[in-house]
UniProtKB/TrEMBL annotation:
It comes from the Bacteria. One of its GO terms (biological process) is bacterial-type flagellum assembly. Residues 1-23 form the signal peptide. Its main location: periplasm. The keyword Metal-binding does not apply. NCBIfam families: flgA_cterm. This is Flagellar basal body P-ring biosynthesis protein FlgA. Keywords: Cell projection, Cilium, Flagellum, Periplasm, Signal. The keyword Cell division does not apply. It is found in: Periplasm. One of its GO terms (cellular component) is periplasmic space. The gene is flgA. Residues 199-261 form the SAF domain.
Length: 332
């Protein structure tokens, strides 16, 4: 506030108070009876204020503005921002609209905040992925910086993309975006980033430990960047059903074939029944497993009598089979 205004305000307050002091003196009081017009009731300045729309009204600033509460006195700040009104502006505005306000201090002021709907970076990136030209059937936009766009309360959050510069070989782009409900005079927002291809893959819906068997309800899907999918990645959820983790696995992460295995039914050093079955021939022998194996796995087994080592297919707990011809000597 300027010094001339402070001086004028001080003098004004003195003039307002002077008749009161004069009337308090019985000697100097005017003996003539008068019926003065009662002054307008005093109003009070709000501690702070918020608005949704594009205009600020007297009632946004003062309590008790009465019939003048809806008088438009200023343009609201941009959505998501605020504006400070000082004592000089407030005093002159109150007088201009017939509102009786006496500043309690030369420091009196109020800050008006304009409410807004916020478009976060994630939503902006999703809209850009839908609107930018691309031949990728499944894609995501990764922005170089975090953005928060403020939209008027109740306004559209749809964006318009302008001046797109896209390099297909790298997926890099830059563009100007404008929110549909923005002030047409508002400057567009410059954004840049990269369009990346995505792939939908099966993932675990929960963390799992070795020994647990993966069921269909333990599987969901998630989208990952193509360059995050490693060679040998599991693409079909049927490859997971009935398997068990080789090591602790986290949820919602891409999986490789060597992350899981069939549940172990024969453990290393287990005694097993070795079966050789051919048309017209059925032989058995006792063996010892040299490694773990699940149903259908081929493991090494030692014949406990001949001490020969053979490869056998795990059939069930405690049972393996020889299916390759010409190795009956393993029984001898």
């Amino acid at each position: 506030m300027t010094k001339p205004f402070a001086l004028a305000l001080t003098l004004g307050l003195a003039l307002v108070l002077a008749p009161v002091a004069h009337a308090a003196n019985p000697v100097a009081a005017n003996p003539v009876a008068v019926n003065p017009v009662p002054p307008a009731p005093l109003v009070s300045l709000k501690a702070n204020g918020t608005v949704d729309g594009a205009a600020i009204r007297l009632g946004d600033l003062f309590d008790g503005a009465g019939a003048h509460a809806d008088d438009v006195v200023a343009k609201a700040p941009a959505p998501g921002t605020s504006m400070l009104f000082d004592v000089g502006w407030l005093y002159s505005t109150a007088r201009a609209h017939g509102v009786n306000w006496l500043p309690p201090s030369t420091e009196s002021a109020i800050r008006i905040q304009r409410n807004a709907t916020v478009i976060e970076t994630t939503e902006l990136a999703q809209q850009l992925a839908d609107k930018l030209p691309s031949t990728l059937p499944l894609r995501r936009v990764e922005l170089d910086a975090q953005f928060r766009l403020y939209v008027p309360v109740g306004g559209s959050t749809d964006i318009t993309v302008q001046k797109v510069d896209l390099k297909p070989e790298t997926g890099r782009f830059s563009a100007e975006v404008r929110v549909a409900s923005d002030d047409p005079d508002a400057a567009p927002v410059h954004v840049s980033g990269r369009i990346v291809g995505l792939m939908t893959v099966p993932v675990l819906a929960r963390p799992m430990m070795p020994g647990e068997v993966v069921r269909a309800e333990d599987i969901t899907t998630a989208d990952f960047r193509v360059d995050q999918i490693q060679a040998g990645g599991i693409m079909d959820p049927r490859e997971l059903v009935g398997e068990t983790p080789r090591h602790p696995l986290r949820a919602a992460q891409p999986l490789r074939a060597n992350d899981v295995q069939v549940p172990v039914v024969v453990k290393r050093n287990d005694l097993v029944l070795i079966v050789l079955e051919k048309p017209g021939l059925y032989l058995t022998a006792e063996g010892r497993a040299l490694e773990d194996g699940g149903k259908g796995n081929v493991i090494r087994v030692t014949n406990t009598q001949s001490k020969r080592t053979i490869d056998a297919v795990v059939l069930a707990p405690g049972q393996v089979a020889i299916r390759a011809p010409g190795i009956q000597q393993a029984y001898n």
